[in-house]
Specification:
binds pyridoxal-5'-phosphate; three-stranded antiparallel beta sheet; globular; seven-stranded mixed beta sheet; 12 helices; alpha/beta
């Protein structure tokens, strides 16, 4: 018989807070017991990495890319990243102002630990990408949420941010386009937020991971390229979303030299370096044709329309998705909470989506749909949702 020693002491550090991710674990456990679940929960598309990028990874492995690289990333990749940032309207960085990380996710934790002292405050949008809150908490700082609302399409405005700034505020996070709402912060508002950062001497983390995936006329302005913003901006980006490379775990951050040296050493301690094979693949992504990014954008737009039309038929309102690959919808009309709605939809309709509370939403009314399934599966998801809603 297996013998396990019972230990009553709580070994978990006091800085570890309860993150509402239990619901995700619970849903994954339920999903495992079901067949034919339509997965629209995680932000990981069904689309595979484009062939030329995969081939570059395979070639790299065959040619010996099985070792550590330079801790801050292969120089040729950092060079290509600098060029790519400028090509997309961003600031002009030097190669030694880039750190290649194991995804943007690693970058946000390295940045939070390198910038925030215990007791400092970090302002971030809610609903917003929740690991930022977790990163601030791990640094023993306080995440301060700017609540945004469907009335103005979940826009983060300077007017909403300014009253939250205290003498402890050190970082303002701008996620543009935003996950989970798909909101794009318009140019004028990014300028106002930048002026606020200058006025109150804040660092801005500009999360531009979805910036290539904007819909219609919407565009996302890179913050570091705005006047007087280079010195106080850390640009965070990655390959997961634009090039369908979630599993390769490769991203980066860019910051002025005085910050990057310290932050880069945290990354060095976390990971030694980003995976060598993935860095070669990322290099191929930047150097190759960008048609794949445009194709992906079109696909996401089509999927978005299909889902939104379906939600219209069921009378489920949502905010206008302006970029990224999510639709944020209000299910309060069903009379049950968003969390219960997600559980019911999974158990009875076999569609997995996530409740908005996960993203720091201030009410339990919204759910996030990821556009991570082909059009026919999204249509099927809509018809399953219809059936489940009819039973409530
Ligand atoms: C806003 C945002 N930033 C960063 C990331 C991290 O992505 P990755 O670590 O795959 O680069 C994500 C992932 O979903 C995200 O939504």
């Amino acid at each position: 018989m297996e013998y396990r020693l019972m230990i009553n002491k709580n070994f978990v550090a006091s800085r570890i807070k309860d993150h509402k991710s239990n619901i995700v674990t619970k849903m994954w456990n339920i999903q495992q017991t079901l067949d034919d679940v339509i997965a629209m929960g995680r932000g990981d598309t069904d689309l595979d990495t484009p062939r030329h990028i995969i081939d570059a990874g395979i070639d790299a492995l065959n040619n010996g890319a099985t070792h550590y690289t330079h801790p801050m990333g292969m120089p040729e990749l950092r060079n290509a990243i600098c060029k790519d940032i400028v090509k997309n309207g961003g600031a002009s960085y030097n190669e030694d102002e880039i750190v290649v990380t194991a995804g943007g996710q690693e970058a946000m934790f390295a940045i939070a630990l390198g910038i925030l002292n215990p007791g400092d405050e970090m302002i971030a949008v809610a609903p917003g990408y929740n690991p930022y809150f977790q990163a601030a908490e791990l640094a023993e700082a306080k995440p301060v949420m700017v609540n945004t609302y469907i009335d103005n399409n979940f826009a983060m405005t300077a007017d909403a941010v300014e009253p939250l700034i205290t003498d402890k505020t050190k970082i303002l996070v701008i996620i543009n386009p935003c996950n989970p709402t798909g909101a794009v912060t318009p140019y004028e508002e990014v300028v106002k937020l930048s002026k606020l950062a200058i006025k109150h001497d804040l660092i801005v983390i500009s999360d531009e991971i979805y910036s290539r995936l904007t819909f219609g006329n919407h565009t996302a302005q890179p913050v570091a390229a705005l006047p007087d913003m280079f010195e106080r901006t850390i640009t965070l980006n990655g390959f997961s979303k634009s090039y369908c490379m979630t599993g390769w775990r490769v991203g980066y951050f860019a910051a002025p030299k005085n910050l990057i040296t310290h932050l880069g050493e945290i990354h060095h301690g976390f990971a030694i370096c980003a995976p060598a094979v993935s860095q070669h693949a990322a290099l191929a992504a930047l150097n190759g044709s960008q048609d794949c990014v445009n194709d992906m954008k079109k696909i996401m737009q089509e999927r978005c329309e299909i889902l939104c039309n379906g939600l219209d038929e069921i009378n489920i309102p949502y905010s206008e998705p302006q970029g990224g690959y999510y639709v944020y919808a209000n299910v309060s009309k069903t009379g049950i909470s968003a969390t219960d709605f997600c559980l019911k939809l999974l158990e009875e309709g076999k569609v997995i989506i996530y409740p908005g509370g996960l993203y720091g939403d201030h009410c339990d009314d919204f759910v996030r749909f990821s556009l991570t399934q082909p059009a026919d599966r999204i249509k099927e998801a809509v018809s399953r949702i219809k059936k489940v809603v009819a039973t409530i």
